[in-house]
């Protein structure tokens, strides 16, 4: 347990909450209403900027830097328009162009990715901090790369969570210097020992907020979302969703592990270790219900929770000579999974076959299959749905999966999971 600075709070704003000038203004209003004392504000790239920069990276790889630059111009224009509307001056072109230039010098595809997409967070934080200053906040921009020191696993870099408090000294000093200081910093990004930019995995800004909270010994973390807290199911997929008001860290960990997309899976653990509560609040409706995730030993959510992953793949494989799947094969498989960056959601084995279920990602899947070599046969089925239910019952599961074919099923007292195939009519 680190020393708590009971007045510091970390607020995290995702892409949707800074997607245009009006949204940025709304962030400033929220901060005026909610901040007492100094705070760290962690921001993602604006709107869909990360996806768009991934597109630019594709062009850079296939067609070269000139085409990539022209593709990137629309991203720069959109950011400049927002800055103009907010009445602030930030050299956004330089941020994006220098990221592209750096990316173009890097050989490794994942290192290139990180160098380029980080521009999204660099730009959004520069815009927000300039706007907050213009609104008379005591705002200061701080580079998360100074604090979030990672390994060199680009695109899914790991952080030594036990050392994070040690990296936070400068941040703690900056927060303590003044009464109401706001440090604006990037989510999602870090720096590896060689000095290159790394990223923590898509949607990783929640995890950044948790790490920064540990780095400053914060009182709490608030994740601002466009939904009323953490719901028992994704409202885009299920009817009649409800907010879970209080959730134990352990349950929240399980839910995010199974693919609940509200919070990045790595977010909970460091907060649990330090006993820092996490609030999930709506930036759309301040009176909407909210969720507090903290230590509630033995407390269950009280209602069934559902998680649907609509686009998973089932990769079945076995030894090419049809022999048994032995421990030697398993050790090869797991080593390849680790290096290919596939995150397995479900697995199952029989005598001659091993089945893996994961979010479809053609690049990583090919990397994995190629790495296996000739020793294995493989077969992939795409477009399946993985439904997980926690604390429900068999009838509910049957109702939800009626009309779909069950490809695989796993069950224990708290969790019931079905891998489903839509029946073609
Ligand atoms: N901007 C990054 C992404 O879209 C990180 C985040 O939003 O948390 O994945
Ligand atoms: Mg984002």
Give an overview of the whole structure.
This protein starts with 8 loop residues before the first strand and ends with a strand. By secondary structure, the protein is of the alpha/beta class. The strands form 3 sheets. It has an 8-stranded mixed sheet with strand order 3-4-2-1-7-9-10-8, with helices on both faces. A 6-stranded antiparallel sheet has the order 12-13-11-14-16-15. A two-stranded antiparallel sheet has the order 5-6. The mean pLDDT is 94. Helix 2 packs antiparallel against helix 5 and helix 3 packs antiparallel against helix 4. It has 13 helices and 16 strands. The longest helix has 26 residues. Magnesium ion binds next to loops.
Instruction: Give me the secondary-structure category.
Output: alpha/beta
Ligand roster = aspartic acid, magnesium ion
* Major sheet strand order: 3-4-2-1-7-9-10-8
Helix content: 25-40%
Catalogue the unreliable spans.
Answer: none
Strand content: 15-25%
Q: Characteristics of this structure?
A:
single chain, 425 residues, alpha/beta, 6-stranded antiparallel beta sheet, 13 helices, 39% helix, globular, binds aspartic acid, binds magnesium ion
Helices, strands, pairings?
Elements lengths: L8 E5 L7 H14 L4 E5 L5 H15 L1 H22 L5 H14 L3 H26 L3 E5 L21 H4 L1 H8 L4 E6 L2 E3 L5 E3 L5 H12 L3 E6 L20 E3 H9 L10 H7 L3 E5 L8 E4 L10 E15 L7 H14 L3 E6 L4 E6 L2 H11 L3 E15 L3 H8 L2 E8 L3 E8 L3
Parallel strand pairs: 1-2, 1-7, 2-4, 3-4, 7-9, 8-10
Antiparallel strand pairs: 5-6, 9-10, 11-13, 11-14, 12-13, 14-16, 15-16
Helix pairs in contact: 2-3, 2-5, 3-4, 4-5, 8-10, 9-10, 11-12
The chain binds aspartic acid and magnesium ion.
